[in-house]
C-alpha cells in the first residue's frame, strides 16, 4: 500500500497531462485556417477568383451554386429519362436538397455539375482536390476528361461504383477554366458531393494532401500499435478479457479508417472493390462498437451487467448478418439502425461509468471523460453523414482520445497488479496453485465417476424394465397353451381319451400347441434382440423393380389359391430407377406379417395391393400395403404395434397370431431408418404405410 500511495502524485499529474494533450490533439486537427478574408462563392455556375492570390491566400473551396442537370432514375431502368436543368448547392447530398427551381432530388440517379472558374492566367500548375463522391464520377476540365472513378451510366445495371479521393493537376493559362463533373449513384443511400472540392496551386494542394495523409497514417499507426500491444498482453494472460476487447476496438477502428478517407487499404489490396470495402466498413463500424462495449463491461462488471453484453452481441450479429446478405443500397439506407446501436450502448457505458465514478473505481473518471468526448464526436459524425451538419469526420480523434486515456488506465492497473503480486508470498502462491490443481483433478475424477454411475443406473433401469416386461409377456401368453397341454396329458394319463383316432387327434393338437409355443418363444427372442439394437443388418442395394418382382413371385400363387386378387406396382415417374438399401431377409418377414394379416381378414373375391412410390424431395420410398377387408377398429390404432396387444379382432388368439408380428415389423422398419403406421382407407379396408430411405 505504501508504493501505491507513492504513485498517487504521479497519477494525478499524468492524468491532467494526458487530458490536456489529447484535447490539444483533437482541436488541432479540427482548427480552420486563420485566414480572415471571406471565401468566394459560386453563383449561377460561375465563381470569380480573379482577385484571389494563390500564393498569399492559399487554397479556396469551390462552394456555392453550380449549374446542375439532373437525370432521375426511371422505373424500368431506361437511360433516356428526361433531365431537369437548374442549379444546386455544393457541397450537399442529393436526397437532402432541392435544385434552384425547387425540384426535389433523390439519392439515386445521375447528375452533371458544371462550374466556370474565372481567374488570372497562371504560369504554374494548378490543382483541384476531389473528396469521396458517391459513388462514381468523371471530371472534365475544359471538355477534356482528367479523372474517372468507377464507371458512370444513367442505367443502374451499368454503373460501377468506386470511391477514393483524388487530386488532378492542370494548366490554367487562359482566364477561364470550365469544370464538368458527371456523378452517378445507384448503390449507396447518399449520392452527390458530401464535402467541398478545393482548388489551389500545385504546391498548396500537395501540402494539403500530405497533411491529410500524415494525419490519417499517424492515427492509423497508433491504433494498430496499441491494438497489437494489448493483443499481446491478452495472449500472455488469457484471463484479462478486457485486453482482447481493447485490442479488437483499436484494430476494427483502424480497419474502418483504412477503408474510408484516403482509403489506404483499398489502394493497398486490389481485391477490395467498392462493394467489399463498403461491407467491411459497416462490419468494422459495428464490431468496434461491440468491442468497445465489451471492454467497458469487462472493466466494470459490477456496474455493467453481462446481460447487456449478450444483448449487444445479439444485435451486432443481426446487423452484420444484414450487411452480409443484402445489397449495399439497402443496408446503407439502414444507417440509422447502426448509429442507434452505437448511441444506445455508448449511453449505457456512460451510465455505468458515472456509477463507477461514484463508487471510486480505478480509472472510472478518466474513462468517463474519454467516453463523453467520443460520444460527442459520434453525434457530430451522425449529423455529418446524414447530411444534417456541415462538419468533418471527428470520430477518429475521439477514439484516439479515448484509446490513449484507456491505455494509460490499463497500464496503471497492471502496475498496481504487479505491485500487489510482489507483496504476496511465493510459498503461499505455490501452495494455492497446488491446491487448485488437486481440486481440479478431484473434481474431474468425481465428474467422471458421476457420469459412469449415471450411465450404469440408466442401463440397470432399462434392463429391469425389459426383464419385468418380458416376464409379464411370457406369463401372459404362455399360461393358456401350457394349461391346455397339461389338461390333454392328464386326460391321456387317466385314459379319459382311449379311442386311437381321438388319441391321435389329441396328440396332433398338442404338437400344434408346442409348435405355437416354439414360434412365440422365437418371436420373443427376435423382438428382444431388435429392441436392444443388437442386430447386424446385411444390407444390399435392391432396385424397386426387383423387389416388386420378388414379392409377386412369393405371394401371387398363394393369393390366387385363396381367390384373392393380388398385385404389386410402382407409382411415380422416378420409381423405375430407385434403389433401397435393405436386409432383404428381414424385410421379407415384415411383408409376411403384413400380408398374412391382410389375408386373414380379406374375404374371397377381395384384393390386396402393394404400391411403391418414390418421394424425391424426402429422399425416401413410400410402400403401401392395402386390403379390402373389414378394416381396423379406430380404438385399436394407437396400440396396434404394441407387444401382445390383442383387443383388435385381427390380433385375437383364435386366429393363431402371437401378438408380436406387428411389433417385430415395426422394429425392423425402424432399424432400417424408416417408419411405419396404420390407418383405415376411406373406401374400407386397412392400410399399412412404410417410409424407407433411398440408397445413398
TrEMBL record:
Gene3D superfamilies: 1.10.287.130, Galactose-binding domain-like, Histidine kinase-like ATPase, C-terminal domain. It comes from the Bacteria. One of its GO terms (molecular function) is kinase activity. Pfam families: 7TMR-DISM_7TM, HATPase_c, HisKA. InterPro entries: 7TMR_DISM_rcpt_extracell_dom1, BphY/WalK/GraS-like, Galactose-bd-like_sf, HATPase_C_sf, HATPase_dom, His_kinase_dom, HisK_dim/P_dom, HisK_dim/P_sf. Residues 473-696 form the Histidine kinase domain. Its main location: membrane. Keywords: ATP-binding, Coiled coil, Kinase, Membrane, Nucleotide-binding, Phosphoprotein, Transferase, Transmembrane, Transmembrane helix, Two-component regulatory system. The keyword rRNA processing does not apply. The keyword Transmembrane helix applies. Residues 446-473 form a coiled coil. Its EC number is 2.7.13.3. It catalyses: ATP + protein L-histidine = ADP + protein N-phospho-L-histidine. It is an enzyme of class 2 (transferase). It is found in: Membrane. PANTHER family: PHOSPHATE REGULON SENSOR PROTEIN PHOR. This is histidine kinase. It comes from Cohnella silvisoli.
Amino acid at each position: 500500500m505504501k508504493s501505491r500511495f507513492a504513485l498517487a502524485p504521479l497519477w494525478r499529474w499524468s492524468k491532467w497531462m494526458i487530458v490536456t494533450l489529447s484535447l490539444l490533439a483533437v482541436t488541432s486537427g479540427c482548427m480552420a485556417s486563420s485566414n480572415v478574408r471571406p471565401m468566394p462563392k459560386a453563383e449561377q455556375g460561375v465563381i470569380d477568383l480573379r482577385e484571389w492570390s494563390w500564393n498569399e491566400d492559399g487554397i479556396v473551396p469551390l462552394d456555392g451554386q453550380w449549374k446542375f442537370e439532373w437525370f432521375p432514375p426511371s422505373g424500368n431502368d431506361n437511360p433516356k429519362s428526361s433531365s431537369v436543368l437548374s442549379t444546386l448547392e455544393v457541397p450537399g447530398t442529393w436526397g437532402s436538397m432541392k435544385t434552384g427551381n425547387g425540384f426535389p432530388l433523390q439519392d439515386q440517379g445521375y447528375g452533371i455539375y458544371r462550374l466556370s472558374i474565372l481567374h488570372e492566367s497562371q504560369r504554374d500548375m494548378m490543382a483541384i482536390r476531389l473528396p469521396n463522391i458517391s459513388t462514381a464520377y468523371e471530371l472534365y476540365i475544359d471538355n477534356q476528361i482528367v479523372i474517372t472513378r468507377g464507371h458512370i451510366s444513367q442505367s443502374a445495371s451499368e454503373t460501377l461504383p468506386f470511391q477514393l479521393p483524388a487530386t488532378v493537376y492542370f494548366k490554367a493559362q487562359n482566364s477561364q477554366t470550365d469544370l464538368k463533373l458527371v456523378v452517378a449513384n445507384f448503390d449507396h443511400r447518399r449520392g452527390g458531393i458530401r464535402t467541398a472540392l478545393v482548388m489551389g496551386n500545385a504546391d498548396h494542394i500537395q501540402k494539403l494532401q500530405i497533411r491529410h495523409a500524415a494525419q490519417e497514417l499517424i492515427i492509423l499507426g497508433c491504433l494498430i500499435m496499441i491494438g497489437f500491444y494489448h493483443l499481446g498482453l491478452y495472449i500472455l494472460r488469457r484471463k484479462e478479457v478486457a485486453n482482447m476487447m481493447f485490442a479488437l476496438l483499436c484494430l476494427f477502428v483502424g480497419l474502418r479508417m483504412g477503408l474510408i478517407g484516403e482509403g489506404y487499404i483499398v489502394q493497398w489490396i486490389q481485391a477490395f472493390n467498392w462493394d467489399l470495402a463498403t461491407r467491411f466498413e459497416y462490419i468494422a463500424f459495428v464490431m468496434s462498437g461491440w468491442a468497445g462495449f465489451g471492454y467497458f463491461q469487462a472493466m466494470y462488471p459490477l456496474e455493467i451487467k453481462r446481460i447487456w453484453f449478450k444483448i449487444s452481441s445479439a444485435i451486432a450479429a443481426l446487423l452484420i448478418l444484414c450487411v452480409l446478405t443484402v445489397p449495399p443500397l439497402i443496408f446503407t439506407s439502414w444507417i440509422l439502425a447502426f448509429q442507434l446501436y452505437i448511441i444506445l450502448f455508448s449511453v449505457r457505458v456512460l451510465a455505468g461509468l458515472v456509477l463507477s465514478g461514484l463508487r471510486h473505481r480505478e480509472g472510472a473518471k478518466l474513462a468517463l471523460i474519454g467516453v463523453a468526448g467520443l460520444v460527442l464526436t459520434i453525434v457530430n459524425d451522425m449529423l455529418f453523414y446524414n447530411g444534417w451538419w456541415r462538419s468533418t469526420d471527428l470520430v477518429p480523434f475521439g477514439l484516439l482520445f479515448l484509446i490513449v486515456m484507456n491505455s494509460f488506465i490499463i497500464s496503471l492497473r497492471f502496475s498496481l497488479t504487479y505491485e500487489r503480486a510482489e507483496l504476496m508470498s511465493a510459498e503461499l502462491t505455490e501452495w494455492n496453485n497446488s491446491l487448485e490443481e488437486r481440486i481440479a483433478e478431484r473434481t474431474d475424477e468425481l465428474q467422471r465417476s458421476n457420469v459412469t454411475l449415471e450411465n450404469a443406473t440408466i442401463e440397470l433401469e432399462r434392463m429391469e424394465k425389459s426383464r419385468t416386461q418380458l416376464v409379464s409377456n411370457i406369463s401372459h401368453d404362455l399360461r393358456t397353451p401350457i394349461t391346455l397341454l397339461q389338461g390333454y396329458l392328464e386326460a391321456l394319463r387317466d385314459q379319459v381319451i382311449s379311442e386311437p383316432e381321438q388319441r391321435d387327434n389329441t396328440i396332433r393338437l398338442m404338437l400344434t400347441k408346442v409348435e405355437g409355443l416354439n414360434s412365440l418363444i422365437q418371436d420373443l427372442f427376435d423382438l428382444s434382440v431388435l429392441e436392444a439394437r443388437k442386430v447386424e443388418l446385411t444390407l444390399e442395394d435392391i432396385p424397386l423393380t426387383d423387389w416388386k418382382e420378388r414379392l409377386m413371385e412369393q405371394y401371387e400363387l398363394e393369393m390366387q389359391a385363396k381367390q384373392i386378387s393380388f398385385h404389386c406396382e410402382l407409382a411415380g415417374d422416378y420409381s423405375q430407377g430407385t434403389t433401397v438399401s435393405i436386409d432383404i431377409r428381414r424385410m421379407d418377414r415384415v411383408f409376411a406379417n403384413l400380408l398374412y394379416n391382410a389375408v386373414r381378414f380379406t374375404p374371397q373375391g377381395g384384393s390386396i395391393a402393394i404400391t411403391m412410390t418414390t418421394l424425391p424431395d424426402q429422399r425416401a420410398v413410400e410402400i403401401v400395403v392395402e386390403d379390402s377387408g373389414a378394416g381396423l377398429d379406430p380404438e385399436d390404432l394407437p396400440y396396434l404395434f404394441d407387444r401382445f396387444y390383442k383387443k383388435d379382432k385381427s390380433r385375437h388368439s383364435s386366429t393363431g397370431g402371437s401378438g408380436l408380428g406387428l411389433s417385430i415389423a415395426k422394429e425392423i422398419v425402424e432399424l432400417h431408418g424408416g417408419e411405419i403406421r396404420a390407418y383405415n382407407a376411406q373406401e374400407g379396408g386397412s392400410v399399412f404405410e412404410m417410409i424407407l430411405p433411398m440408397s445413398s
